[in-house]
Specification:
The chain is of the alpha+beta class. It is built from 6 helices and 12 strands. The strands form 2 sheets. Strands 2-1-10-5-6-7-3 form a 7-stranded mixed beta sheet. Strands 4-12-11-8-9 form a 5-stranded mixed beta sheet, with no helix packed on it. Helix 1 crosses helix 2 and helix 4 packs across helix 6. The chain binds 2-oxoadipic acid and magnesium ion.
Length: about 260
Amino acid sequence: MSEVTDSDIAAMADRLVAARKSATPTYKLTDDFPALDLAAAYRVNAELRRRAEAEGARVIGLKMGFTSPAKMKQMGMDRPIRGFLVDGGVIPDNDVLSMDGLIAPKVEPEIAFVLKTELAGPGCHAGAVLAATDFVLPALEIIDSRYENYNFDLPSVVADNTSAASFVLGSCSASPTDIDLATLGVVLEVNGEVKALGAGAAVLGDPCESVAALANMLAEEGETIPAGAVVLTGGITAAPQLRAGDNVVAKFQHLGTVSLRIV
Ligand code: OOG
Ligand code: MG
């Protein structure tokens, strides 16, 4: 049996919820709970999801993090992690996001998948992902760690739902069988200045591999990616910090642009 008890899990979830709701950062959970390993961190993550759903949130998708060398290097992490996305996190394209209620947001350009059929592991592969995908969309993810200065380790960031806050989906869709997602280029601009650029191959060689990896990770818990889910495959580039007044535009080859203004 794990050293981490159910009451520890609840206490950790309490701390993360309080940090998010008060927009006041906390310190990483492993400082107080050194026994928190990845398995226990996913229990905290599941508890946050259970609480969100109990408060009426709808889980509309899932996300992968640390799938590109740029993100792994920026945050000092060495492997992909997963989290969940709720309806309240959706920001329309070209809309505004208020800094009120956020701690220290950053933005990441990502490729999103929308599934038409359920996807299950183990043994999920890129071909199964292509067969299950309805379309892909360009996306911006807004992350906002509940830890001061993004000072976390892998279990702590998993417990914190992989820093998930909000996301924007563009409206220009494509079938992943019609375009080459590996060579698809993306340019991230903040206030008209190019902050980062990359291509889909930064994400595990091809963003399809990120979706397959997600299905395979979920299979370990006996879970699947449901039909209709949106999947954020992970930041292609490092994530710049955002400030009030920033204008963010991500330009995607074949998929148009996605924009957001911070106020
Ligand atoms: C964790 C979130 C990682 C991504 O796309 O790599 C993530 C963080 O960097 O705080 O969403
Ligand atoms: Mg992300």
